[in-house]
Amino acid sequence: MPTATPDPIPVASRVHGFSYAIRNIVAEAKKVEAAGRAVKYLNIGDPIPFGFKTPAHMLEAVEKAMRDGHNGYGPSPGIMSAREAVADDFTARGLATTPDRVLLTAGTSEGIEIALNALANPGDEVMVPSPTYPLYTAVTAKIAAKTVYYRTDPKHGWLPDLDEIRSLITPKTRALVVIDPNNPTGAVYPEPIRRELIGLASRHGFVLLADEVYGDLAYDGPTPPMARLDPDAPVISFGSLSKAYLAPGWRAGWMAVGASPRLTDVLAAVMKLADGRLCATVPMQYAITAALRGDRSHQVTFRQALRERADVTVARLNAIPGMSCVAPTGAFYAMPKVDLPPGRTDEDYVLALLREAGVLCVYGSGFGTRPEDGFFRVVFLASPAELAEIYSTMAEFTRTYLGR
Ligand SMILES: Cc1ncc(COP(=O)(O)O)c(C=O)c1O
Q1: Which residues 6+ apart lie within 8 Å of 358 measured at CB?
Q2: Which atom of ligand 1 sits closest to the CA of residue 242?
Q3: Per-residue model confidence (pLDDT) at position 1
Q4: With bands split at pLDDT 50, 70 and 90, how would you rate the model's confidence at 3?
Q5: Mean pLDDT for all residues in the chain
Q6: Residue 108: CB within 6 Å of ligand 1?
Q7: Taking the CB of residue 32, how many other CB atoms lie within 10 A of it?
Q8: Taking the CA of residue 56 as centre, how many other CA atoms within 13 Å lie in the half-sphere pointing to its CB?
Q9: Which of 20, 28, 389, 394 is 20 to 30 Å from the Cα of 193, by its Cα?
Q10: In what helix (H) or strand (E) does residue 277 lie, and over which residues does it extend?
Q11: 183 within ligand 1 shell (Cβ under 6 A)
Q12: 256 contacts 101 by C-beta, under 8 angstroms
């Protein structure tokens, strides 16, 4: 006897507003692989698959913590020795802070989610750069806050347009997201711009969320924490072991809530929300102490390697007819632009590049740029020789795609 198919269980409507192109596009790449074509993955900013190694003293710290029996839950805000290490590190970089204002998190991702939950009611506005790292818009979609994009301009080294930001501020603005050094553009903001952004947060009474996960990966050397420019400004600073300490899988990060008395309630709200998730991964918190108090010479080598790869990327992509690429000055991303034929989108180009040439990038509209503008993001962690080969493939494909 035929049985009626039961109705599907409905999912919450917030899921429909949630999108994460960097990972979503992998499903397409798997199909291409299943059809027999090898794929070069230039989509996820993880240095480990490209041969970069987590420093040995951090591995030892995690192993020792596990062997010493630190495998139970820890305090919700994090173990004190690591919170102290984070506070001392900020202080050494010119931003005096104390461990009681530091929360250890499952990467900056968790810190960002907690902070936005602590700050924004449904309908409140969060200013986010365009293009942006998509976690921000994914979280605003979840909490029903409104994303207000502010432009960063490729014609001016992908710097933010301060006049536009000023014009976007309303009484509902609760936070301004600043990613510096930036993913996806590789821009590093000069001090006057940072100072102006901080001034806006102070004057208008919203929080500046300073995403400094790439702070040690500016090619000219570490950028100081933004909040240093005005320690009384309402700034929350975020960092992690993921990028500059080469341990993204450990999900170990931190946030420091600025010393401004205006942030007292926010700090309490952040700590309250953190109680609900018990704690961040405990053995990895021991590695935070090891990383921030130990040898960082790997960062010198890593920065050199990134600069070299950025140079290859910029030279090779700018040599492709119909393509242009602003030179990154930090991190491991570039945001080239292809002059699309009318009617085509960035996603069309990226999918064709994947299916026909086996190179996976992420389309710019996944980061908030307009589909017709033809931006896409490249992660340049592969070796310079491999990158050169990949860019040759891209050049050949793009010539045909654009009919040049
Ligand atoms: C700008 C930015 N912020 C945050 C993150 C998340 O990093 P974490 O591993 O610390 O959660 C990333 C990861 O790519 C990033 O690019």
Answers
A1: 32, 37, 38, 39, 40, 393
A2: 9
A3: 60
A4: low
A5: 96
A6: yes
A7: 18
A8: 0
A9: 20
A10: none
A11: yes
A12: yes
